[in-house]
Amino acid sequence: MSNNEKVALITGATRGIGLETARQLGKMGIVIVVGGRTQHAAHEAADKLLAESIEAYPVVVDITKDADRKRAAAFVAEKFGKLDILVNNAGVGGEGGLLNAHTIETTQEELQSVFNANLFSVVAITREFLPLLKKSPAGRIVNLGSIVGSLTLQAMPGSPITPFKAFAYNASKTALNQFTVHLAAELQSTNIKVNSAHPGWVKTELGTQQAQMEIGDGAKTSVELALIGQDGPSGKFIHLGNELPW
To answer: pLDDT tens, 46-101?
Structure first.
């Protein structure tokens, strides 16, 4: 690898939007570190990318485990000495899916599990990789948000996202957006840009086959934000080039 090549780590990159994000970035000549929860899943996904002539390296990283986060950062540091792109793609849905409205009945266990994966662990892995991102001439952090986390749209009468009231999941994505805003402000004097990406309602395990978008299109926003130039946005909530309301 030359010093000019970019390196991207995508968490949850073994399937769905994460794997497609890795594929699209890899086809642009970016070296991919495939983050997966198990060794088998990470190696299988990396092999798929290698078969498409994409330089890919598997790494086991369950983002909820501190030891995994540290080992992944150590691997990237030893192998590449820097990280240019961190796509915080890994996350979980709540109980019952996106269309199962439950608020006060949401259990403490569900809230803790969803927030641990979708917020606390994202903050933790970003903290772990930030020193390597600071070594990049143009570090980029992409947090996979969701339009269901928009307080503006959730409160709007007749909003298109009105049916989506899965409280734990929605609230975790609202909190993730707050992390994006705060981290972008903290890093505004650096070369690092931080944004939240709404992929769209995509045909994944979480989105179900009722969704409107194919996986290939669902990865586009993450890819665009991973590659924005120095004049691009930071601290924004974006879907396919359009800014969304917080």
So the answer is: 999 999 999 999 999 999 999 999 999 999 999 999 999 999 999 998 887 777 67
DSSP state, 136? S
pLDDT digit string, tens, across residues 134-163: 999 999 999 999 999 999 999 999 998 888
Contact present, 195 and 235 (Cβ < 8 Å): yes
- CB 187 within 8 Å of CB 133: no
Q: Which of 80, 164, 169, 179 is catalytic?
A: 169
> How far apart are the C-alpha atoms of 231 and 32, rounded to whole Å?
24
Confirm if 201 and 6 have CB atoms less than 8 A apart: no
Question: How far out from the chain centre does Cα 25 lie?
Answer: 14
Q: Give the number of other Cβ atoms within 10 Å of residue 189's Cβ.
A: 7
User: Can you read off the two tokens belonging to residue 34?
Assistant: 């495939």
Hey, what are 93's tokens? 């849905």
Outline where DSSP puts E strands in 53-171: 56-60, 85-88, 140-144
Contacts of 206 (CB under 8 A, 6+ apart): 93, 97, 98
Cα–Cα distance measured from residue 183 to residue 178, given in angstroms and rounded to the nearest whole number: 9
Cβ atoms of residues 89 and 10 within 8 Å: yes
Nearest to residue 181, comparing CAs of 197, 198, 194?
A: 194
Q: Which CATH architecture has domain 7-243?
A: 3-Layer(aba) Sandwich (3.40)
Question: Is 169 an annotated catalytic residue?
Answer: yes
The amino acid that residue 8 corresponds to is A
8-state DSSP, 148: G
Length of the chain: 246
